[in-house]
Give the backbone structure.
Amino acid sequence: MKTCSAFLVLFLCLGMASAQQFTNTNDSVIKMAKAGMSDSIIISSINSQPGHFSLSANDLIALKQGGVSDAVMAAMIAKDAPAASPTVPANTSEYPTEIGVYYGVRGVYTNIQAEVVNTKTGGVLKSIATDGIVKGDINGHIHGEHSPTSITTPLNFLIVVRDGDAPAEYQLLHLHAKSKYREFRSVTGGVFHASTGASRDLIEFQSARVAPMTYRIILPANLPTGEYGFLPPGAFASRNLASSGMMYTFSLKE
């Protein structure tokens, strides 16, 4: 009788543990997005919980229509990637391991110097930013006409991200050079708002995982010469407030 009771207790415990196990799906991610949860919370849930996602082209469109951001979809793809993506090379010593943005070729990578970027939202930097600023836009200002890092083609970039971040959370921005500073416009959270024009300086790129938390950045062909910068996640100001953060900048030369 005691043996039966022990088995019953074990069975009930296993049943409770199984009931507590939660698996994220497309529907659960859409529900979190519609509930107004931030990207960082949703991505944290995706990274910490088991996931079973459908990620065909139609599924991604449905996710977008359901209010899911690009950064969250990238995290879903990364979570699903180990079963479908190429195996990461066993020898990854050629890649840097410290968080940052790098450029180089054949295992020789140079860290891109980060500069202080001052950001404000909601049309605050009126003396600096151009016209048409609306609430939710990010206005960035960096001291100096040119980046201290000068790069020529071919362009070979690596990003080493923080644990839990995705390369899609970084923004590559075209910087407009003035006599004593560089400026850009973007949007909070990296979400596109075509009606505001705030995504005018945003340059889309692709990424490929080459080592743990390390991604090769694939840029558009024939990127024009000029001033650019990678803005990492978390560098934005709170709504209608000023703040400062870091931006990995470079000057693209002929």
About this structure: The first helix runs from residue 2 to 20. The mean pLDDT is 76.
